[in-house]
Design a protein that fits this description.
alpha+beta; SH3 type barrels; Fumarylacetoacetate hydrolase, domain 2; 25% strand; globular
Length: 416
């Protein structure tokens, strides 16, 4: 954990409003010409780790797969070199590039992708719309629910995507029809990036689960709700989800998040998880206080020079299942994780109605459209809408750290 009063010789990192102070140093990749290069964000700059002499390769998967202690040692070397007065300033200075002048992509090559359902508030709200008499299915409080998604359609922040086509069927229709989704939605999520792998057949225990997590990024799992409603039974999400998912460029390490840990406490009366999902450390510090925000900038707002409206705010500490529990459950059957695998947390909603992490929640399934500051209304996303996810951690006595942003814009459906 980096002391809150440490300052960097990179002046922009000392701005209290910066997402990327010396106490953060998230990992990602950039390029100007040619191949992707490994970097950390520091203020409004990126530091090329190879050019700074800290690594001798450009393979992010190799870096992430290292034992946690090796990754922590690298992070400490970065802190030492970027601290005000460091004798390495000249060497590091030559490896800096302005973020505004480089291309940021996916932080790593994404391997397998699993999406979870960790917010009990989201699960309950959506369940009430689909099953008013039985909103929360009986396994929810026992099993970290998840499904295997498709990694090929995960795109970096800033990438626009086309409105998807799919089968839909209204209750009064005799047969389904094919056409563009009319109920396109976003999902406010975090992405957990796996680092150190485990061998096939060897489960990961709770007491070492977080050693296998490289860090946390912002993630938007775009969803076609009308397609989803027709296709999801009996096997769950399919074409309603795999047309695009957006990942932010920076992975914030668990070391940077350490000051923002909190006890993980289940509501009174809820059952304890099975033993393989329990540990003293998880009870004491399994939750992470990460403030999450969703913003929308419509095409009309963009044309008028408006930055957009904040639609909702929630917090990751309200998740029902923790980082360690997701890793332990995913591997309890012997499943082997690999460096670059991605876990989506599922939509992260808060306990209050205005804290919904999707439009399906905020608009009550489209029945209560939201009025924006410029008079426009939204039940679901329209062509030209840009959705921006942001996140940050704050606590008295510690430096604020942020995650940057995760941004995507809806383009019109293509002609079939």
């Amino acid at each position: 954990m980096t002391a809150a009063d440490l300052r960097s010789w990179v002046a922009s990192a000392n701005d209290p409003a910066s997402d990327f102070p010396l106490q953060n140093l998230p990992f990602g990749r950039f390029r100007q010409h040619g191949d992707w290069r490994i970097a950390v964000a520091i203020g409004d700059q990126v530091l090329d780790l190879r050019a700074a002499g800290l690594i001798d390769h450009g393979d992010m998967q190799h870096l992430m797969a290292q034992p946690a202690q090796a990754r922590r040692s690298l992070r400490q070397a970065l802190v030492d070199g970027l601290t005000l007065g460091s004798p390495q300033q000249a060497q590091f200075q030559a490896a800096l590039h302005a973020q505004a002048e480089v291309e940021l992509g996916l932080p790593c090559e994404i391997g397998d992708y699993t999406d979870f359902y960790t917010s009990i508030h989201h699960a309950t709200t959506i369940g009430k719309q689909l099953r008013p008499d039985n909103p929360l299915l009986p396994n929810y409080k026992w099993v970290p629910i998840g499904y295997h998604g498709r990694a090929s359609s995960i795109v970096p922040s800033g990438t626009p995507f086309h409105r998807p086509h799919g089968q839909t069927k209204a209750p009064d229709q005799a047969a389904p029809t094919l056409g563009p989704s009319r109920k396109l939605d976003y999902e406010l999520e975090l992405g957990l990036v796996i680092g150190q792998p485990n061998p096939l057949g060897q489960p990961i225990r709770m007491d070492s689960a977080e050693e296998h997590v490289f860090g946390v990024a912002l993630f938007n799992d775009w969803s076609a709700r009308d397609v989803q409603g027709w296709e999801y039974q009996p096997l769950g999400p399919f074409l309603a989800k795999n047309f695009a998912s957006t990942l932010s460029p920076w992975v914030v390490t668990l070391e940077a998040l350490e000051p923002f840990r909190e006890p993980h406490v289940r509501p009174e009366g809820d059952p304890l998880p099975l033993n393989y999902l329990l540990s003293p450390a998880n009870r004491a510090r399994g939750a992470i206080n990460i403030e999450l925000e969703v913003w929308i900038q419509t095409a009309q707002m963009q044309a008028a020079g408006q930055a957009g409206d904040r639609l909702s705010q929630s917090n990751y500490r309200d998740a029902y299942w923790t980082v360690a529990q997701l890793v332990a459950h995913h591997t309890v059957n012997g499943c082997n994780l690999r460096a670059g695998d991605l876990f989506g947390t599922g939509t992260l909603s808060g306990p209050r109605p205005e804290q919904g992490g999707s439009l399906m929640e905020l608009s009550a399934g489209g029945k209560q459209p939201i009025t924006l500051s410029n008079g426009e209304t939204r039940s679901y996303l329209e062509d030209g809408d840009t959705v921006i996810l942001r996140a940050y951690c704050e606590r008295a006595g510690y430096r604020r750290i942020g995650f940057g942003e995760c941004r995507g814009t809806v383009l019109p459906a293509r002609e079939l």
